[in-house]
Write a structure and sequence with these properties.
5% of the residues lie in helices and 39% in strands. It is mainly beta. It is globular. It has a five-stranded mixed sheet, with no helix packed on it. It has three helices and 30 strands. The chain has a single domain, classed as 6 Propeller (Neuraminidase).
Length: 382
């Protein structure tokens, strides 16, 4: 199964950024890569392992997956509206299932965060942040100054927020990224929007990522990736996708038809690619995403030697299994994790049913009661 991005899911907001000034960014680095190539897994992966997720996770979609020092946190925002907390061996620790209107309950999940300093799971709704313990117990709620799309804690009480809503009365709401102090309600602007009728998405769920004292941030269509340090120094990367970046002036709704977007025209989109943030990072690597021909792809940047790995066609020359890679987690041991339904893996095995492949042998060992399987790809020493 490939992960197809549907352009019609976008909604109108006003979002792009001003040209960077000295106060916003001090240096710029180019991330430049070629997309139209085959990529063998063995070029950057040396092993693949598989594990079964607990039987309690029977259905749903994994909208956000977080990794802490001891746990995986898997959140389904819309179907089950559950948040599953697992240990590092994928054993179930607890489930947050708080749909409702009472204290500690939610009717909408916009995003989630793990507050490292508090050791709490935080659920962002359209009106507040709900804090829970790893055991799933409700702790407290914090009222929002206005609704926003994503957030990442940088201390016990401070957050970098992504504002995809420019309709509020706050002057600071003109900023795409800001630091919000949940104790004082103070907002400190970081990167400003330009109101030029561009389109952004309410599905920017992985456009902020914190690694130690660095926060990486961007948004869909934007070819700039910001790195914000805890001392508020901002540097930025320019993402050049094979010189095929979608021009900003194309990211508009067609005023003549009133509703049809130029993004829906295949003859236009086949010529361009655009940034689709899927941010994750550790000391050695950065992973991010882009869209080409309505399909989401990833690129892997070696932060040390600056090598980049990406490709339109993935060739699995390690275990003969899946010929695509949708990274969801990158850990500090340089493992990439992907998550799959059993039927998805079985379908792939059936295609190569006559071949003696390591992947096929593993799938044969599973039963129809299997729900979800996690694959762990280890990045070789590059």
């Amino acid at each position: 199964m490939k992960y197809i991005y549907i352009i019609t899911l976008f909604s109108i907001t006003l979002s792009c950024t001003e040209p960077t000034t000295k106060t916003e960014a001090e240096d710029v680095e180019l991330i430049n890569f070629r997309v139209n190539r085959d990529l063998k897994l063995s070029e950057f992966i040396d092993s693949i392992e598989y594990n079964i997720l607990p039987k309690e996770i029977k259905y749903g979609y994994f909208d956000k997956i977080l990794l802490t020092e001891n746990n995986f946190i898997i959140a389904d925002f819309e179907m089950s509206m559950n948040i599953y907390i697992l240990d590092k061996q994928f054993n179930l620790i607890s489930i947050i299932n708080k749909y409702g209107e009472g204290p500690g309950e939610y009717q909408w999940i916009e995003n989630i965060n793990y507050n490292i300093e508090r050791e709490t799971i935080e659920v962002l709704t359209n009106k507040d942040i709900l804090r829970y313990s790893i055991s799933g117990a409700f702790i407290e709620s914090i009222k929002l100054p206005f609704s926003f799309g994503n957030f990442s804690s940088i201390s016990r009480d401070k957050y970098i927020i992504y504002n995809n809503n420019l309709t509020t009365d706050y002057p600071e709401s003109t900023y795409m990224f800001a630091i919000w102090d949940s104790k004082t309600n103070n907002l400190e602007p970081l990167v400003k929007h330009i109101k030029n009728d561009l389109v952004s998405s309410h599905l920017d769920r992985s456009n902020i990522f914190r690694y130690e004292d660095e926060v990486f941030a961007s948004h869909i269509f934007l070819d700039t990736l910001y790195k914000i340090n805890t001392n508020k120094k901002i540097s930025k990367f320019h993402i050049n996708i094979n010189n095929q970046n979608l021009p900003y002036e194309y990211v508009k709704f067609d005023t003549e038809s009133g509703h049809e977007s130029i993004l829906d025209k295949s003859e236009v989109m086949s010529n361009y690619a655009f940034h689709y943030p899927k941010l994750m990072a550790n000391k050695e690597f950065l992973i991010d995403g882009y869209i080409k021909n309505n399909t989401i792809y990833f690129y892997l940047l070696n932060r040390i030697n600056r090598d980049i790995f990406t490709g339109i066609n993935i060739i699995n020359d390690i275990d003969g299994g899946l010929n695509y890679l949708n990274p969801r987690i990158l850990d500090n041991s340089n493992n990439i994790y992907t998550f799959h339904e059993y039927e998805e893996l079985k379908e792939k095995a059936n295609i190569n049913i006559d071949k003696k492949l390591i992947f096929n042998e593993y799938i044969k060992s599973l039963g129809p009661e299997t729900g979800f399987v996690v694959a762990k790809y280890h990045i070789k020493n590059l």
